[in-house]
Amino acid sequence: MRKTLRKYLVWITLIFLLVLMFLQIRWIVYSIRFQEKIFQNSINLALGKTIASLNNDQYVCNLMRDCMRCDTLSLDDQLLSHGIWDKIHQSIDDELAAFDVYIDFDLFITRNNLDTLQSGKKFNHSRSAYYTQSLQDILQTNGYELVVRVPGRTTFLPREAALLLGSSVILILLILISLLQMVRLYKNELQLLANIRDLINNITHEFKTPISSIALAANMIRKGRFTGQPEKLQEYAGLIVNENQKLQRQVDSLLDLAAIEWDEFEYRKELIGLNDLALTAAQSIQLLLEEKDGNIEIDLKAEKDNLTADKVHITNAILNLLTNAVKYADQKPHIRLLSYNREDKVILEVSDNGVGIPLKYQRFIFDKYFRVPTGDVHNIKGFGIGLSYVKSVVEAHGGKVSVVSEPGKGSSFYLTFRLSD
Questions:
Q1: 380 is in which domain, residue-wise?
Q2: Within 10 Å of residue 33's Cβ, how many Cβ atoms?
Q3: Half-sphere exposure of residue 103, counting CA atoms within 13 Å on the CB side?
């Protein structure tokens, strides 16, 4: 029920954020269009007021009429020499400034909407935003228009609109990044919860057998079943001790991993040889190998193997890999334990012929409590902390752990360390 509720809450939040993004985009588009309309109105009003001002100036009107009777090739010179272009330009500048619009523009006079200007220049409509106002009242003839052209653009975006657009785009990107991060964290939390649930189930299975064995042996001793049978009594007492030690090791492994992850563990580092630790770990799994009729091939060729490390935890990390190689073999285990040098590093390789790890799970196998799903089959014991422990220990010593695996063919784990001087 809670899982379903959490799922719905995530999706509801996702929908709300998407709606917010949609509204934000709509608002941006509306604001830009609104700003564009304001700008266009400002240009048209500025042109209208300029024409009205010129129309009230009889001297200017007469000059412009005289200029229009001139040769079209000298029109620019005539308008410039009489200061008419400057007067019109300044008037439009002043009117636009009143609307808080500051732009560069060109002035032209066209006749009958032709592309050829009276000045003799070619006017390209497609590359510019242009605005027109009739000169009929000034020139007292039809067909002439004063054109304001904003070069190099078909629309105008004021600074305020650009700032609005930029800030809104940044806000949308931040929302999107936050949303993706939230979904990723949610999926990670779900995976962690699933791993913890599996851990609890595994702890139950792992603890149930030794607890039951201890309870059975203690109950039989308490009832005096072995009166006069010291051998039997010793056997059951030994069973209690062994099962208790097994429980203690399991609890210690959980506590050690927690201490390592919280940086509460102090490593006792000293100069050690990695080859020696690998041999020690290999000897520790001999009985386990014999039970499964397996074998181990040892080829420690690394001539330089000195590390400054905690030999107990490095040995345990290697032992974890070797134990997994035996546990996850669906046939007679064949393990290869290799060491070799590469540049200023020493590499320890543990390879097996086990079931292998599907590619989609390989990036999760070093996560705490993660175990490769096996359905309802629980034939392999463990808490899912072995590889997480290996990764924590190796990285605490400045090393790196990696894996290459193929289902049905086995896995190879690589521990890489920098050499000590």
A1: 270-418
A2: 12
A3: 26
